[in-house]
Please model this.
Amino acid sequence: MNLCKLTLYSFRNYREFSQEFVPGVNLIVGDNAQGKTNLLEAITYLSTGKSFRTRKEQELIRFGDDFCDLQAEIALPDREQTIRAVMFQGRRPRQLYIGGVKQKNAAGLQGLMPTVLFCPEDLLILKTGAAGRRRLMDNALCQLRPAYDKALTEYGKLLEHKSRILRDHREFPSLLEPLPEFNEQMARCGAVIISSRAKYLRELQKHANRYHTEFSGGREELSIEYQTVSSVEDPFASKEEIYRRLREHQESHYRAELESGQCLSGPHKDDFNACLGGLSIKNYGSQGQTRTAAISLKLAEREIFRLDTGNEPILLLDDVLSELDAGRQNFVLNQIRSGQVFITCCEKDRLTDLGQVITIENGEVL
Model:
């Protein structure tokens, strides 16, 4: 699967943009704030139906315009296909099209044009808060497992409603009446989320450890420990068993939630701990070890996609190479000789032999 052509209208700083790409490496060059990352954002939006930079779709529309239009022409193993997204100012809902057919939601996008994004913030993902690591799991699983995407979306809506109930119940006691039903539904969705995350992290560790072992010359072993709701002792148990454990946790935290006004039970606080030789990277890893492990996780994510779907996802490297020393740059470059890759950078000196070079200046191709 390859992205053959991307066409944009009024997206971010692009008034009009149309560019064909090669199946291998596409090097996007330009100074800072010229629109390089915006191109990767457009690709990921057409891949997932979401932006990796904002939850407000109005921010994607060029300042002063009423709407933006994104379209990708992709080559699948057996056919060509188009993906299109149109977003509007105000409250008008977006419109998604696959092959010219309007979609009810983004579910149809899953697996059609899979992407793996690696940006500078990801180099420190093992050192920062848990939200980034949850996002790493969720972004991958939502593309791989439509049922997971559905459960996660539903859980997010339920969590928002429950949080509002817990926050306002003292002033409006009647809000507590639907709380048992919210807990029931959240436990059902939570069981799907926990089961899927546990299985994914097991696969991620296997492949990431292989990359990290090669990266470190066999000196370090990378392991991943999934951290979820304390009552779920075995995240690999059946979904029904996980559901029962989540209900137990909800009941035991009922009073604490009412008193604190916060939702204290559920997988929305999940995390994972990456370790080298049994020592937590978050607490003890050097900067070099942290970056090496983060790169290994992203390469492992791409490998899981390839093995699971038979298609190699598009790899998007957003100004990552400039953040790495020469040794780590060479390791990454040696891993991207297959599949389609997009690399953004400010200077192309040591990358010009990789493939097509596209120079961007102020939202235009030179």
In short: The longest helix spans residues 179-215.
